[in-house]
Structure formats: structure tokens, C-alpha cells
Write a structure and sequence with these properties.
It is built from 6 helices and 7 strands, in the order ααββββαβαβααβ.
Length: 239
């Protein structure tokens, strides 16, 4: 039963539907999934998924080869989906060996982003497409390895600095979803150790998500306050 529940949770965590309304990360996951579904078809050839996790976007990518990479660290037991482990500095691939790259919710966990982006540049072919997502308005997570939040301008700057040109930039969850997502996260974190999880889900998280979903259809958008950055970039020069 536990394994079945874990599989359901994992699926709803990335592609929330009815069950996803009972989870605290509903709005972030919903918006991220919707936009990734539209952007992943622009990736092709040999693809490198950097910080691949469970490879939740593998099925979206119509590519010739999908390779996932993770850092070889103390969390190795959770990197079972990765095809390759590396030291976090130099990826074990030849120069210009990938046509495209994907990195979702990873950059905020990298203390020196230039080190990572220089390697991504090195292993990608010229004009290769790089799809990257990173949270903007979000709680600390994956502690103690949560180091930064990037504005849209900050991401454009560090990508340009490392040989990439931004092709498309999306601020997802750019509306009242930010408020309801924050309320949901706060209540879940504040009360999860004091009350049974099932009570939190039904009495707090679910109604917040439902109300937020309805209100988000009515109120205007706000591009200065949003949940997540999604960037589609192209390699334009070698470093």
C-alpha cells in the first residue's frame, strides 16, 4: 500500500489533477507541468537531463537519446534513475556531444552557477537548445542545499555570461496563485508536526487550492510576482 501511495504522490507531484488538489505544491506543479509540456518538444537529438531526479519529463521529450546525470554524493541511493554520476565539476562527456539539455529546479541548489553553466556550454553543440526552470517565489527546500533565488534579469545575465542567448522566458504562476500557494505551504509546514497529515490535507490544503484555482481565473496577472522562471535558451558561443 505504501509503495502504491508513493507512486500516486510522485505522479501527482509533477502532474497534479484531482488528487493534486490535496497537495501543498499544487499551483507550482500545475503551472510548471503545463509550460514544460509546451516547451519540451523544442528539444531534440541527444539530450542531457542535468539533475534528472526521477526523470519526470522523459516521456515528454521526443529525442534520439535521453541521458540523466546527477552528482555522486551522500544522496546516491536516491539517484537510481540517473544514467551517469559525476563530481559536480566536470561532466564525463566529450565537447559538443549533446544537441539539447534540460535542467529543472536545479540551479537554486548550485552554489557556483558559473561552474555548472560552463560545463553545460562545453558539452552542448552550437545552437543547441537548453531548457531550464528555477523557482522564484518559493520556500527554502532541500536544506541545507538551497542557495539562491534568481530574477528573470539575473538568469538572463548569467546565461549570457556563459554563452547562451535567451529565446523564450516565462514567468509561470504569475498571479494570485502566489498568495494561495504561499498560504498552502505555510500551513502545511506549520502544522504537519502537530496534527495528523490527513486532517491537514482535508481541512486546510484542499479548500485553499480550490479557492485559489477559482480566484485565479478572475483576477489579473502580475509579471512582477510569480512562482517560477522557465527559460528556453540557445548556445551561441563557445567559452
Amino acid at each position: 500500500m505504501r509503495r502504491i501511495l508513493e507512486k500516486i504522490y510522485l505522479k501527482e507531484e509533477f502532474n497534479p489533477k484531482i488528487i493534486g488538489l490535496f497537495l501543498p505544491g499544487y499551483f507550482m506543479a500545475k503551472e510548471l507541468y503545463r509550460n514544460m509540456l509546451n516547451l519540451t518538444p523544442k528539444l531534440g537529438g541527444r539530450l542531457l537531463d542535468i539533475g534528472c531526479g526521477t526523470k519526470p519529463y522523459d516521456f515528454m521529450c521526443n529525442v534520439d537519446e535521453y541521458i540523466g546525470i546527477e552528482i555522486d554524493d551522500e544522496d546516491r541511493k536516491n539517484h537510481t534513475h540517473a544514467d551517469v554520476l559525476y563530481d559536480g565539476k566536470v561532466m564525463p562527456f566529450e565537447d559538443k556531444s549533446f544537441d539539447s539539455a534540460l535542467s529543472s529546479e536545479v540551479l537554486e541548489h548550485v552554489f557556483n552557477p558559473d561552474t555548472l553553466l560552463k560545463e553545460v556550454n562545453r558539452v552542448m553543440k552550437m545552437d543547441g537548445i537548453f531548457l531550464m526552470t528555477t523557482p522564484f517565489f518559493w520556500e527554502e527546500h532541500g536544506q541545507p542545499y538551497d542557495y539562491a533565488r534568481y530574477t528573470s534579469f539575473g538568469l538572463e545575465y548569467i546565461l549570457d555570461k556563459n554563452g547562451f542567448e535567451v529565446v523564450e522566458q516565462i514567468k509561470c504562476g504569475n498571479g494570485i496563485e502566489v498568495v494561495f500557494q504561499t498560504m498552502s505551504n505555510y500551513l502545511f509546514r506549520a502544522f504537519k508536526l502537530k496534527f495528523p497529515f490527513i486532517l491537514i490535507v482535508f481541512l486546510l490544503i484542499f479548500p485553499i487550492n480550490i479557492i485559489g484555482l477559482v480566484v485565479s481565473k478572475i483576477l489579473p496577472r502580475n509579471n512582477d510576482m510569480y512562482l517560477n522562471n522557465i527559460i528556453l535558451a540557445k548556445k551561441v558561443k563557445d567559452l
